[in-house]
Every structure is written in C-alpha cells, then in structure tokens.
Amino acid sequence: MQFGVYGLKPEEKVFFDAWAQNNGVTMNYHTAGLNGQSPADFAGDDAIVALQTVPYPPAAIEAMAAAGVKYMALRNVGMDNVPFPTLAAKGIQLANVPAYSPQSIAEFAVSLTLQLVRNFGYVIQAISAHQYTEAMQRTGKELGTMTIGVIGTGRIGASAVKLFKGFGSKVIAYDPYPNPALKDEVEYVDDLADLWPRVDVIDLHIPGTKENTHLIGAAEIAQMKDGVYIVNTARGNLIDTQALLAGLASDKVAGAGIDTFEFESDVFPQWEKNEEPTNALYEQLLADPRVIMTPHIAYHTETAVENMVEVSLGNAKAFVETGHAPNEVDVQKLAQA
Predict the structure, then answer these.
(1) Are residues 326 and 314 in contact, defined by beta-carbon separation less than 8 angstroms?
(2) What is the mean pLDDT of each run of 10 residues along the chain (337 residues)?
(3) CA distance 293 to 277
C-alpha cells in the first residue's frame, strides 16, 4: 500500500514516518501541494493525503483519476477549496479530519483578542523605536469587562466560549444550530442583527461557505459598537477586507486579528518563499499597528499536527481496505450544494 502525501510540512514528517512503520505503508512525499500534476505523478499511489489552503485544481483531480486513484484524505476539516463537482464526476471519494484540536484554534483566537485589547501592536512598535514612555502610556482593556460575540459554536467555538468565560467575559452567541452543551453558558440570539450592536469583540468560528462570504461587510460594521474588535481564525472570505479597512480608517473598528485573509490564495505562494506579499490590501492591514496578521497558523500545535496526520492516514487506509472511511463525506451531495 502506498500513499501520495502532498503539502508535507517538516514538522509532520516524524508522525508520518512513525505511522508508516507501524502500519507497513509506503509514503511518497511531496512538499508541494496539488497543482499541475500529471497522471504519472500519481503512479503507484493507492490514495492521496493532502493539505493546502489554496484551491485544489480540478486538473490535478482529473490526473489522479486518470492514474486510477480513487481516494483522497484531507489532513484538515475545511473543504471550501475542494472542487466537488470534479470529484463527483471522476468518482473519487473524500474524507477529512473533523476535529484535530479545537482547543488549538480557540486558544489562538483568545490570544489574538488579548493582544488586541492590550495594544500589543502599538507597544511593540514603540519599543522597537525605543519609545518606551509611549509603550508605558498605552492603556488596555480587561476581557472580564467585555462582552464577546462568538459566531459559530461547534467544537472550536464552544472551546472559545469556555476560554472567554474563564476570563470573566459575558458571551453572546449565534449559530443556526445552537449547541445544547452551552445553553447555560451563553446567550444565543436568533439573528446576527441582534448581536452586532451588543458586543465588544466578534470572534468568528464558522465555515467559509458561499452563503457566509462577506458575513461581515460595510453594512454589518455600521451596526457594531464603536471601537469593536474583530477576530478571524476561520476563513478569509467571511470578512470584506475593503470594509474592514474602511472601519479601521474611521476608528469604528478598534483592531482586528486576522489569521485567515480574504485573498490568501494570492499571498500564500509568497509566504512559502518568505517573500513580502504584494497584495495591496494585505500590505495595508500589515502596516496598521491595530491589526495582528498571522499566516493561517491558528491550528498549528504539536497536538493538532499529530492528530491531523494520524486521522487522515487512518481514513486513507480504511478507504483502500474497505472502500469507505470513518470520516468520509458525501461527495455527490456536496457537488450539488
């Protein structure tokens, strides 16, 4: 049995090697993601195990099918970059990792919030310029005095709720499917219009579906409190970047923590080469000390990486041995969505 591993990161390899040895599976490693491969590149592979945040090109999926590969196992949960119509047309089955470490992303979201409300961007900027008195005069806020709006209360959102509650924050939440485990922890609202004007911080934990694109735009920001903070560790398309910049320019938005950027596919190739991103909107955000930008790393802990590798490999092995996987998704249904 052989798996083609794409988008391999250095920190993953120790977990891949250990699993391969324990399970007698050969790994065909590729540091590059799926993009521009030919059928020959997949020769001998029984399944593809992939991880990337940029879109999976339909041509790569077609090349997999031409090589006889029937199974694909993602090492993450998000599938908004997957061309489901192509998978369905080529009869390729897919599995993901529904939960590799909700705590890792929730902790990162809370850490971004703490840095924002304590003016870390300004403090670091002042210290770097040896303006220590300016840094000492920056007055922050305490989370225990603030109301947090958590949008999406699945595994990650629920973890974030518990962390914010630990700081003494009041939490108002929105989710089309409220989490029963949180009924005594949060106040749910039925409409986001009831959340925007009541919260000091907005923390996003929902999928980047087409319906959720620009969930936060100019109209939504106008409804928010003056001096609101916005944190996005979910998907870049949830926020209209132009509207966010306008909100920052008017001081309607006091700060933003952006781990997932709307035009990530534009800047990701430059991130991989350690080059300065040339996207003008990214550069504007990066230059603002009220904004903390990170390169899609909220998930990135040792626990998460190990779980992503082991669960995805378990899915791939089950596919090859039985034709189905524990975390298989309905490709045909998703292709019609």
Answers:
(1) yes
(2) 97 97 98 95 98 94 98 93 96 94 96 98 97 96 98 97 98 97 96 98 94 97 98 97 98 98 92 92 97 95 95 98 97 93
(3) 12
Q: What is the pLDDT of residue 53?
A: 85
Check if the beta carbon of residue 189 is closer than 8 Å to that of residue 138.
no
Neighbours of 302 (CB within 10 A): 11
**Phi and psi for 221 in degrees, rounded to 5?**
-60, -35
Residue 140: strand, helix, or coil: coil
Strand partners, 34: none
pTM of model > 0.85: yes
Cβ–Cβ under 8 Å, residues 126 and 138 = yes
Domain 2-100+301-335 matches domain 102-293 at the CATH topology level = yes
Q: For residues 243 and 215, is the Cβ–Cβ distance under 8 A?
A: no
For 141-154, give one letter per residue: b (16+ CB within 10 A) or e. Answer: bebeebbbbbbbbb
The DSSP bridge pattern shows strands 187-188 and 201-204 to be unpaired
Q: How far apart are CA 15 and CA 303, in angstroms?
A: 11
| Fold (topology level) of 102-293 | Rossmann fold (3.40.50)
CA distance 7 to 33: 4
- Active centre residues (catalytic): 235, 264, 296
**Half-sphere exposure (CA, 13 Å, Cβ side) for 301?**
13
**Could you state, in order of their start, the residue ranges of all structural domains in the chain?**
2-100+301-335, 102-293
Q: Which CATH superfamily is domain 2-100+301-335 in?
A: NAD(P)-binding Rossmann-like Domain (3.40.50.720)
pLDDT at 313: 98
| 291-305 pLDDT tens trace | 999 999 999 999 999
CA-to-CA distance for 295 and 301, rounded, in angstroms?
A: 14
pLDDT tens column, 235-262? 999 999 999 999 999 999 999 999 999 9
Token pair of 62, please? Answer: 């077609």
294: left (phi over 0), alpha (psi -120 to 50) or beta: beta
- The pLDDT value given to residue 271: 92
Please say whether the beta carbons of 308 and 76 come within 8 A.
yes
